[in-house]
């Protein structure tokens, strides 16, 4: 069984790659969704977030409103760091528990590939040894900006988020392999992903597939 971290900056095509792998039958773990599953009403992590960012981040049921939290957490680099300091230790502990038995879990589900999509790879860098590969999806900044705006993101919001992410060189340095997604046609990108799988003996169906959360 093969396991990997899938990394890349905003609008690089990382999530497109994750969906492609899922369609092929890979077991996929989206760390953003995985983190949201920690936001159980009344939990210690929710209480810490309220103390840091205010009661306004709560929804009507006492859980965390992701949009309200993001609005406050991305106001400044320091607020983003405070969010990471609260969430990432708990997230990493839960993820390590999921990744450790990957071979057995994958065999039970009939999947030959487990993919962990990490939008903040530097926060889980110390978990990279638990997987076989770290695949980076890269694309030029201007192309990523155009993609983000085309799907409805405010240009200033994109610039703000992009400025807090690692440089393209830093992303590449974390990876064991890189796919350059400068393609304008998604089918060309999927062909590149197919080639990547083929060179690792993972052509054809990868199994039954599953999107795993917390």
Automatic annotation (TrEMBL):
Enzyme class per UniProt: transferase
> What InterPro entries does this protein map onto?
Depp_CoAkinase, P-loop_NTPase
Documented EC number(s): 2.7.1.24
The pathway to which it is assigned is: Cofactor biosynthesis; coenzyme A biosynthesis; CoA from (R)-pantothenate: step 5/5
Provide the Gene Ontology terms for cellular component: cytoplasm
By its UniProt entry, which Gene3D superfamilies does this protein fall under? Answer: P-loop containing nucleotide triphosphate hydrolases
**Molecular function GO terms recorded:** ATP binding; dephospho-CoA kinase activity
Residue numbers binding ATP = 11-16
Q: Does the keyword Repeat apply?
A: no
Principal cellular location given in the protein's record: cytoplasm
The lineage's top-level taxon is: Bacteria
Keyword list (alphabetical) reads: ATP-binding, Coenzyme A biosynthesis, Cytoplasm, Kinase, Nucleotide-binding, Transferase
Q: Name one GO biological process term.
A: coenzyme A biosynthetic process
Q: Where in the cell is it found?
A: Cytoplasm
One Pfam entry name: CoaE
Enumerate the catalysed reactions: 3'-dephospho-CoA + ATP = ADP + CoA + H(+)
Q: What does this protein do?
A: Catalyzes the phosphorylation of the 3'-hydroxyl group of dephosphocoenzyme A to form coenzyme A.
* Similarity comment: family membership: Belongs to the CoaE family.
Q: Report the protein name in the record.
A: Dephospho-CoA kinase
Organism the protein comes from: Enorma phocaeensis
């Amino acid at each position: 069984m093969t396991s990997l971290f899938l990394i890349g900056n905003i609008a690089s095509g990382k999530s497109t790659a994750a969906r492609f792998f899922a369609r092929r039958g890979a077991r996929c773990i989206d760390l953003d969704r995985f983190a949201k599953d920690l936001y159980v009403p009344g939990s210690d992590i929710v209480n810490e977030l309220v103390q840091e960012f205010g009661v306004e981040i709560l929804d009507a049921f006492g859980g965390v409103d992701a949009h309200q939290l993001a609005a406050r957490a991305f106001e400044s680099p320091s607020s983003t760091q405070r969010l990471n300091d609260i969430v990432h230790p708990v997230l990493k502990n839960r993820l390590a528990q999921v990744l450790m038995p990957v071979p057995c879990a994958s065999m039970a589900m009939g999947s030959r590939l487990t993919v962990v999509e990490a939008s903040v790879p530097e926060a889980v860098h110390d978990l990279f040894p638990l997987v076989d590969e770290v695949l980076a999806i890269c694309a030029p900044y201007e192309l990523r900006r155009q993609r983000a705006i085309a799907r409805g993101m405010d240009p200033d919001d994109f610039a703000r988020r992009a400025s807090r992410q690692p440089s393209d060189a830093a992303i590449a340095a974390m990876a064991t392999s890189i796919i350059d997604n400068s393609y304008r046609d998604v089918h060309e990108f999927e062909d590149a992903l197919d080639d990547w799988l083929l060179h690792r003996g993972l052509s054809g169906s990868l199994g039954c597939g599953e999107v795993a959360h917390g």
